[in-house]
Amino acid sequence: MNLYFIYVCLNSSTVFNSTKGSRKYVDILSTIGSVLSMCTCTVMFYKRRIEIQSLLIQIDQTTLQTSVSHQTINWLKIVLFCDIVVIAASFPFSERPFFSFFCFFLPTLVNIFDHLFLDDILTYLGAEFDMISQHLKQRRDSMALPDARIVDDIQKLSLRHCDLSKLTLQFTRCFEVTTLTAMMMWFGYIVNSIFFLVFDLIYTKHLETRIIKFAGALIYQKILILWLCIMLKMYTRTEDKVANRAVGYVHDIWNNFVMMKKVNSEVHHLHLISIRFLNTKPKFTAMHFFPLDWSFCHVLIAAITTYIIILIQFKI
To answer: Which end of the chain is more exposed for a tag (fewer CB within 10 A), N or C?
Structure first.
């Protein structure tokens, strides 16, 4: 890690002096974002390792799965890995291979794999929530058991659901700091790449050079966009799985009791259970700075457009 910072400091003195105007400051800000992100990742990886290990043990003790659940092919990840391989293979032919690798590609790669690890954990937890919903669905479809037994089973499932929700929140909070710095770095990278793409299209004279730079910039922007989509998708998917279907099944069971005219004090307890399901639905944020759902895309599009227009005006 120390060698990384030494390299950045030594190389920045030559690279930044070779660029002029707004390009120089955009490059400096992007590199600062890279260094900040790598520093944060290094500190947080060391700081949270014991907490993550403890949470993984708790998750393993709380889960219901007895076999590996079937997972569909994630095409977003496959396309992302293919683009990463293409960009990595193109570094030897770029103008500044070492600078581009250490200042742009390596921090991006570290943060991408950090979120992919979180995505795997949230996918596993999502399967647990699906299993709880499946058990509730079975209780809804089969009302042959005594009323007290059905309510007691639902109570146990709700408590397990509540424990899993707390573990999910605790686990995602371990990644809030790195997610915040990663999104700051992501914003700098996407503005930097779009601005340089526009700049090169306007001022590069050689057609072959222009096509190569255009293709490389598009692939790199595609990696950034896929990374953002995977991250937001995993958070919104987890939010949707936590409580939505479980509450619906509990309400269906209550309606079945009402239709059979078996409403008593024990059945009334289903109201409290449904409230518990609703109150355990998490809301993921990056340390309360911005929500981690699809609404975050609107903020990013507006901010990127604004900064690109400002940078182009300064250049013109």
So the answer is: C
| Burial per residue of 261-273, b for 16 or more beta-carbon CB atoms within 10 angstroms, e otherwise | eeeeebbeebeeb
Q: Which of 250, 247, 239 is nearest to 281 (CA)?
A: 239
Cα gap 230→77, rounded to integer Å: 8
CA distances from 233 to 221, 295, 297 (A): 18, 12, 12
Could you give the dihedral angle defined by the CA atoms of residues 294, 295, 299 and 302, in that order, rounded to the nearest 10 degrees? 80
For residue 192, the tally of other CB atoms under 10 A from its CB is 22
- Residues shown for the chain: 316
**DSSP bridge partners of 178:** none
Cβ(56)–Cβ(120) below 8 Å: no
pLDDT in tens, 187-206: 888 888 887 777 766 665 55
Rounded to whole angstroms, how far apart are CA atoms 64 and 207? 59
Distance CA 217, CA 213 (A): 6
Separation of alpha carbons 7 and 2, rounded Å: 9
Question: H-helix or E-strand containing 193?
Answer: helix 176-203
Between the alpha carbon of residue 253 and those of residues 120, 185, 246, 262, 264, the distances in Å are 32, 48, 11, 11, 14
Gap between the Cα atoms of 190 and 183, Å rounded: 10
Give the pLDDT confidence of 59-82 residue by residue, as tens digits.
877 766 544 455 667 888 889 999
**Long-range contacts of residues 63-66, Cβ cutoff 8 Å, at least 24 apart:** 63/124, 63/128, 63/164, 64/128, 64/131, 64/132, 64/135, 64/160, 65/127, 65/128, 65/131
pTM: 0.82
